[in-house]
Automatic annotation (TrEMBL):
Name the record gives this protein: Protein-tyrosine-phosphatase
Gene3D superfamilies: 3.40.50.2300
Xref: InterPro entries: Ptyr_pPase_sf, UCP029416_PTP
Top-rank taxon, per record: Bacteria
Length: 114
């Protein structure tokens, strides 16, 4: 692991939830963050190199975790945590920001003991 851990945040299309997470934490000095989507329609779609880059993958729904585990079963996958945030918020919605801030801080602090 690098000096600062790499956190990959993934949702369906990387339009609202994961992109908001990247926006919130892009200047955080504790870790590096990148957001991607699972859909072929995503502007930034997850690739094997992204999974290899990550020290922790945070996904929004159980199905996202299942898909990553299946799609990348031939490589070593870092821990994947499900944040349980439904796709019902717009990009940078205040409630979404609060949920992501709380859940990502908790996951990162526990995983990396920051």
């Amino acid at each position: 692991m690098a000096d600062r851990p790499n956190v990959l945040v993934v949702c369906g299309r990387n339009k609202r939830r994961s992109r908001t997470a990247e926006y919130i934490f892009k200047n955080d000095r504790r870790f590096n963050i990148k957001s991607l989507g699972l859909s072929a329609k995503s502007e930034r779609q997850i690739k094997e190199k992204d999974v290899l880059w990550a020290d922790l993958i945070l996904v929004m729904e159980d199905g996202h975790k299942t898909r990553i585990a299946a799609d990348y079963r031939s490589i070593e996958i870092p821990p994947i945590e499900v944040l349980q945030i439904e796709d019902e918020y717009e990009y940078q919605n205040q409630e979404l920001i609060e949920l992501l801030t709380d859940k990502i801080n908790a996951s990162v602090n526990v995983t990396f003991q920051l």
